[in-house]
């Protein structure tokens, strides 16, 4: 058996700094976990700074200059449907598959809108089908109904986890497509997230692990957010499911009320969240194309 290196075309997108390599699912990637681990690496992964676009060098559109990515979106476009459908599979930097990613789904919608000309898309994810609308560089996506039920999070016990102590952090557990442990703090900048989050992320209370999100509420009712993501195993510049989890938990705890939208600001920018009393939550914000390039794929042949 021989091992060969082939190259496939990819694109890079980001939603408020949450960045993704986008691969058309028609391209053959025999080992998707290995591909994600290789090219998402922040030390040696995909590098936009060396990509030539229309004769000019470019850097990441979020102006961070970072290598790598927060995941790989494998997207299968079904353009014959109306509205067009996109089957989305997110493979994370550790090789695992995430059931849902809000910013990833918004990037998938932007990618599909560019190819179909449609401003309305249906994104099929392992967490369910989500409707997205595209308005210029702004993408809004339905996120499903947040659930605190122990079976849905999931939790090890049969009671909801509401403002409970988990590994020294007071958290509320909610599933917004993926599980989140949300902690409200006085100031997110005062939290050493890399120090406190791993113990919560791997706590016995969460048999499948959890994303760990901290949030602080401002006097104007907006929130600042930071999230340590399961599968990335570190903090990301933005987390859409985490932003929805912040508002869902805040509403459950009486910090916000009604159906009005709430601004949540991770480090990468502002997101607008609605968590209505009835119906799905929504996540809205910018999604931006960065560049196109080609990346190596390992192919084994006899």
TrEMBL record:
Chemical reaction(s) catalysed: (2S,6S)-2,6-diaminopimelate = meso-2,6-diaminopimelate
Enzyme Commission number: 5.1.1.7
Gene3D superfamilies the record matches: Diaminopimelate Epimerase, Chain A, domain 1 (3.10.310.10)
Active site per UniProt: 101, 239
Pathway, per record: Amino-acid biosynthesis; L-lysine biosynthesis via DAP pathway; DL-2,6-diaminopimelate from LL-2,6-diaminopimelate: step 1/1
Main location: cytoplasm
Subunit-level organization: Homodimer.
Keywords: Amino-acid biosynthesis, Cytoplasm, Isomerase, Lysine biosynthesis
Single GO MF descriptor: diaminopimelate epimerase activity
Listed Pfam families: DAP_epimerase
Presence of keyword Ligase: no
GO biological process, alphabetically ordered: lysine biosynthetic process via diaminopimelate
GO cellular component: cytosol
Name of this protein: Diaminopimelate epimerase
Chain sites annotated for binding substrate: 18, 92, 102-103, 211, 229-230, 240-241
Residues annotated as site: Could be important to modulate the pK values of the two catalytic cysteine residues: 180, 229
Function as written in the Swiss-Prot or TrEMBL entry: Catalyzes the stereoinversion of LL-2,6-diaminopimelate (L,L-DAP) to meso-diaminopimelate (meso-DAP), a precursor of L-lysine.
InterPro entries recorded: DAP_epimerase_DapF (IPR001653)
High-level lineage: Archaea, Methanobacteriati, Methanobacteriota, Stenosarchaea group, Halobacteria
UniProt source species: Halogeometricum pallidum JCM 14848
Family: Belongs to the diaminopimelate epimerase family.
Location of this chain's protein in the cell: Cytoplasm
């Amino acid at each position: 058996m021989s091992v060969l290196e082939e190259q496939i075309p990819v694109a890079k997108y980001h939603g408020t700094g949450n960045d993704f390599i986008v691969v058309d699912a028609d391209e053959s990637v025999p080992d998707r976990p290995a591909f994600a681990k290789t090219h998402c690496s922040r030390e040696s992964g995909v590098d936009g700074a060396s990509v030539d676009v229309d004769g000019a060098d470019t850097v990441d559109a979020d102006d961070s200059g970072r290598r790598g990515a927060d995941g790989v979106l494998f997207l299968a476009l079904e353009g014959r449907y109306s509205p067009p459908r996109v089957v989305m599979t997110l493979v994370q930097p550790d090789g695992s598959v995430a059931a849902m990613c809000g910013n990833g789904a918004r990037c998938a919608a932007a990618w599909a809108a560019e190819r179909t000309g449609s401003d309305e898309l249906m994104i099929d994810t392992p967490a369910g089908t989500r409707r997205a609308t595209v308005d210029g560089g702004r993408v809004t996506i339905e996120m499903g109904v947040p659930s605190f039920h122990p079976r849905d999070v999931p939790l090890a016990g049969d009671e909801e986890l509401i403002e409970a102590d988990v590994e020294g952090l007071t958290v509320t557990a909610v599933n917004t497509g993926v599980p989140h442990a949300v902690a409200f703090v006085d100031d997110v900048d005062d939290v050493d997230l890399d120090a406190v989050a791993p113990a919560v992320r791997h706590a016995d209370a969460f048999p499948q692990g959890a994303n760990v999100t901290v949030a602080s509420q401002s006097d104007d009712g907006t929130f600042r957010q930071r999230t340590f993501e399961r599968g990335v195993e570190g903090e990301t510049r933005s987390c859409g499911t985490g932003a929805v989890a912040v508002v869902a938990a805040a509403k459950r705890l009486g910090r916000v009320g009604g159906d009005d939208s709430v601004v949540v600001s991770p480090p990468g920018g502002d997101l607008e969240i609605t968590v209505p009393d009835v119906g799905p939550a929504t996540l809205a914000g910018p999604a931006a194309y960065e560049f196109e390039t080609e990346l190596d794929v390992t192919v084994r042949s006899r």
